[in-house]
UniProtKB/TrEMBL annotation:
Matching Pfam families: Plug (PF07715), TonB_dep_Rec_b-barrel (PF00593)
Superkingdom of the organism of origin: Bacteria
Residue ranges annotated for the Secretin/TonB short N-terminal domain, each copy included: 9-60
Location in or out of the cell: Cell outer membrane
Keyword Signal attached: yes
Keywords: Cell outer membrane, Ion transport, Iron, Iron transport, Membrane, Receptor, Signal, TonB box, Transmembrane, Transmembrane beta strand, Transport
Name by which UniProt lists this protein: TonB-dependent siderophore receptor
Family in the record: Belongs to the TonB-dependent receptor family.
UniProt keyword Membrane present: yes
Principal cellular location given in the protein's record: membrane
Residues in the signal sequence: none
Native source species: Komagataeibacter oboediens
Amino acid sequence: MRFSQQAGIQVTSDSALLRGINTHGVHGHITIQYALGQLLAGTGLSYSSAGHNTVVLTKAAANITLGPVRVGGTVSRQDPTGPGVGYVATTTMAGTKTDTPITEIPNSIYVVTKQLMQDQQSQSVVEALRYTPGVYSEADGTYGNGSGSTSVGIMQRGFSTTQFVDGLMTNSSSSGEPAFLERIEAVNGPASVMYGQTNPGGMIATGLKKPTDTPLHQVSVGFGNWGRYETAVDLSDKITKSGNLRYRVAAIGVTQGTQVDHVNYHRVGVLPSITWDIDGKTSLSLLGMYMYTPGDGTAYANQEPILGTLIRNSTYPEIPRSHFLGTPNWNEMGEDAEMFEYQFKHEFNRYVTFSQTFRWENSHQTQKTSYLNGIVSPTEEEIATWDNQSQDRTVGLDSRVSGNFSTGPVRHTWVVGSDFRQYGSGGNSVFDFTSFPLVDVYNPRPNYVPCYNMNSSKCENYGVSSKYSYFQEGVYFQDQIKWKGLSVLLGGREDWVNFSGNYGSESTIGSYPASSNYTKYAPQPRHAFTWRAGLIYKFKFGLSPYFSYATSFIPQTSTDWRGTPFAPLTGNQLEAGLKYKVPNKDILITASAFRINEDHYLISDLVHTGYSSDGGHVRSQGFEISANANIMRDLRMVASYSYTDVRFAKTNLTEQRFNPYTSSYYGNLISEQGMSVPQVPRNMASVFFDYTLPRNIFKGFGLNWGLRYIGYTYADEVESFKTKPYTLFDIGAHYDFGNMLPTLKGLKAQMAISNLTNKYYVTSCSTFNCFVGQGRRVYGNLTYNW
């Protein structure tokens, strides 16, 4: 009876079968089928599914082996950190740090399942988020798309986002490598109460692969255009006979070019992990990672001029995507990174559980590249070169106590915790100002060797060094109060932040007079309280209306061009919506409307390239509609529509309008107040289907196709001009060779083509240059499971 209540299914039996039978019980967060197997082991009883969330206990036949039970055609309770089922995930840890159904959380949470990533053959988190509501993942075009780097160019509800892995903020490359991830979640709206420093648009939560309960053996080889070759391994099995000690090793090696000449992507990485179930109430998981990426697939210099990209005509024809607008003999961007993590959990009793996650990560980045220094003419760019070395180190710890208790008919799921994060960053950059080569965008043939000899009078160098130390600690609490179909969520958090650093510059050798200028910033302690409240009511027929209010806080470690740190970002959001889980079906539909306010919104500094400025008070409002559905056994679908209107609600900034045809400003200064925030599309829509053909037509063969629509974005803060909307098509196919020959069981082939028509499009622009989107990408692989 207790199992029936906790699992949410009905267990029936003949009472005579149960007389005199005792079990050893079962304890922990485990699947229904495993729990039933353990509960009935040695009792002489078996079970069968009677449909409609009902299990019937029967007398076991001799020597029977209990298999998995499927209740109502699907597993009733999913692992909240697992890969999901098909395209649907029904539970999550990301929203509340507790195992909670998505339909009981009063804000928008969208899960990119492992199956969806596999069907689309996503090669980065940026690509995996293409079909996610409220998320514009490719604002910077292909910049960072191949590297698997964290949060590059990703916008949520009009705000830049932050990525967390296993509940901790990260700077590790492991967070962006799909071969190491079990699932990706977009938590739209403020998440500061549980995670601290996040923008009000939301956060991206990912989960690293950990040992599985059942053996997993998978190897794959992949290939694609631009000379891509890839090998990946994913192995998991038990170490001890009982299975209380298990391991998993995920590894990847890949090499390829990109659509841009002289820009390549090379990576090798390994993620080993061990899980030890110390006893029935205690578990420990250890994870490590090493990643070496000597070429990260980014083109730092490849911000192309407006004429020839956004504006294309007979005078300014299309600039080919392959043109590299830098200097090939000074073109190196890479990283090496390592990480260690542990996850510990102990259940004191049915009321109190202790959990702790710790991570240490370190990375070193090298950039010897060129960058756009100015537009000389409509067909010529001036570039400058630099040599940048930087290192990041992060230590994070999240400790929490959670549990359940009841006050009469009211059930409480509570969490009290504390987390901290120590982040250190340092870097040195040297700029060559000896000369500034010109690049013809239609015939780029630069042949410039930077001059960095500090002892030569022929070299003119300018050096910059910086060092930041950042410490954040937070204490948080949360109570999920449930009475019948009503769930109320209350939570609060106090954050303390202290950061300090220095910023220095020095000119050496050449016509620049020798000088130095170093600024040291004293420690700047800050603190803030954030809170959220929401309610959601779940009707028996599956509909769940909700309403919530939440606040956010994020201190700014970045500085303006003078090196002065920005004031903290503070925001709040009102959100109302509907969630509908179709009874007995894997179909989840979500609709939400929101209004976000944020102070000290950062925008690009149009005068000082590479820096930001304070844009004042910004308001984002809109709505989202999404559907994740396993419609039938062989038909899956995701679909969404997003409307996001982001404007400067209050600001003192003014600006002249810009004419992209003449590359010049004109007219009087115009207030930015009431204008749209640039680089944010107002409308986005997408749909993706995967269908495995009936067995009597072509057994084992499946097809998928998708459509992505992205609306226009403005290029500057006074709506001078905007990009063009674009529609892209994706297709794919897969075939299970086990349907051809039994000896080929476990062998599967997949093919995915994104931007099928090879459409030339621009993802976003600033006043002088644009980011060009990814052309047709073809990727396929052969995977063998045993």
